[in-house]
Amino acid sequence: MFSRLFYPIDWTLSCLASVLRLGAGKPGISASPPTSPLILYEFESCPFCRIAREQVSASGVTVQVKPCPKGGKRYRPEVVEKGGKAQFPYLIDPNVSAEGHPADMYESADIAHYLREQYGHAARPPIHWAGPVNHILSQFATVVRYLSGTIARPATAPEQPLLLYTSERSPGGRLVKEMLCSKELEYVWSPRSPDGLRTPTLKDPNADQTVTGGFAILRYLRRTYPSL
Ligand SMILES: N[C@@H](CCC(=O)N[C@@H](CS)C(=O)NCC(=O)O)C(=O)O
User: Ligand 1 pocket check: which of 48, 91, 113 to mutate, most ligand atoms within 8 Å of Cβ?
Assistant: First the structure.
């Protein structure tokens, strides 16, 4: 839901989700950043995808997000084609070539471990040590966000992917990612802004626009990329 009236309530619920995750997803800096962005197929409300995203943020790695909400037809078929099954999260690292193939993997724990190993020993979010409690709290966060970012309401795909700067734990950033996910809008996600801009910030290379702040970005996306 998005309206001026509802935004403060939504933002507060998003803060609560970050509290439930004990602030996991603080933006880190990668010791050895990937040359090309990694590709992450996921959907915002998926508790396992959240765990992978938290490590992306903590590792300070840039990823190209291909949103795969339920009922989505834009990127879901790619996952089955490339990995063999519709399971999320699914990560492809086009930089690594063990036997001439890029690395790809499905499991959230494997993705988190891979990011730490491959791109510098960035901090592991404390909640990730908590085993099943980690998974349960991630599911609570999904419930607190009333499953936002689950169902596809696609918008026309822009020619070039949007650029989003926000950490995983940012309450406003989460609301933006939920909308991008439902609309199946692909974006290049960096947990930090390179030029010290306030986050969340969205850059739209298709319209040469830079928009800062959760509410302003949501309004921009709703107007520029209305659901079909
Ligand atoms: N053990 C996996 C579980 C992943 C999983 O169950 N993901 C669910 C979404 S939360 C899924 O892919 N469901 C199939 C679908 O959405 O079509 C992990 O940790 O990544």
Answer: 48
How does pLDDT run across 102-128, given as a tens digit for each residue? Answer: 799 999 999 999 999 999 777 899 999
pLDDT, residue 5, reads 86
Measured CA to CA, the distance from residue 3 to residue 215 in angstroms comes to: 9
User: How many residues can be counted in the chain?
Assistant: 228
Q: pTM higher than 0.90, yes or no?
A: yes
Placement of tokens 């592991």 in the chain: 124
* SS3 state at 57: helix
Q: Which residues make Cβ contacts (< 8 Å) with residue 225, sequence separation at least 6?
A: 155, 156, 158, 183, 185
Q: Which residue has the tokens 């986050």?
A: 199
CA distance 157 to 137: 33
The residues spanned by each domain of the chain are: 7-224
Peptide bond preceding 102: is omega within 30 degrees of 0, i.e. cis?
no
CATH fold for domain 7-224: Glutaredoxin (3.40.30)
Name the residue of 40, 46, 142, 181 whose CB sits within 8 Å of the most ligand 1 atoms, as the mutation to test its pocket. 46
Atom of ligand 1 nearest to the CA of 88: 12
- Look at ligand 1, atom 10, and give the residue with the nearest C-alpha: 46
